Amino acid sequence: MSSTPTTTTHKVLHNGVEVNGWLVTTSKKPILNSTDKESWERDLKMNGVPEMIFGNNYVSVAKKDGSIAITFNAHDALSLCAKTADQTIKVAAASKWQAVNKMHTNGGATVEKSFEWTFTTPYTGTLLKDGHVYFHQAERPPTIFEPTTEQIDIEKLKRLDPILFYDDVSIYEDELADNGISMLNVKVRAMTTGIFVLQRFFLRVDDVLIRCIDTRLYHEFEHSGYCLLETTVKEASYDHLRPLFDKDPTSITNVNLIVQQLPTKSTRHEKIIL
Fold first, then answer.
1. 0.70 exceeded by the pTM?
2. Residues 6+ apart with CB under 8 A from 46
């Protein structure tokens, strides 16, 4: 039996689509300027923020009646970054990084900056429900976030169901002082059968480490009572991928190809009760 709802209705919006009582919208605007970035550093209590922050970008999946909204944005994502650097991760060009990672005070003294310079975040989206906001993993009431063995049916997502809306939204990016790349982006698509979101955090520290944290959100219209939320962490040493890079140097910028080669460290499956 087909899972396609018999009464799928939609309306195109200037920044998204309304489909089956859901609003799927995005915002794509320029990066924050230096003044805004300094303000964010103070607000987030961080000693450093990514080079490029798309602070006014977002992806939003919300019920039209306002009962629930799930958004993905830079401010909440960065707020979950560690406040001090992970000392187990050292760039190969250590002396170069140390030079970048210092600042001079007005008196001329050199002071080490200590911050999570990889900008790794455990962020899995921001949930607004019943007047409460949840975006930290510690704030997951069991009445809303329910562990499950049910998984997103990837084969269904491979079907050629009509796509009513699609967007790819950058959240932040940093080149780690030419030592790799750290970036967070979100892709969303609304179909006649449901809504799918993929948020991907990708980190490549050259000659050291490669990491990916994928968050998948899926709501199938025929299962109206919940969304599925899956978080997958993949990680490996740079040497694990070095044969690939040596064989094809251009592959170092092919994020999808790299992620396919990474071993999985952990996966979490949850239902978001609507």
1. yes
2. 40, 78, 81, 83, 115, 116
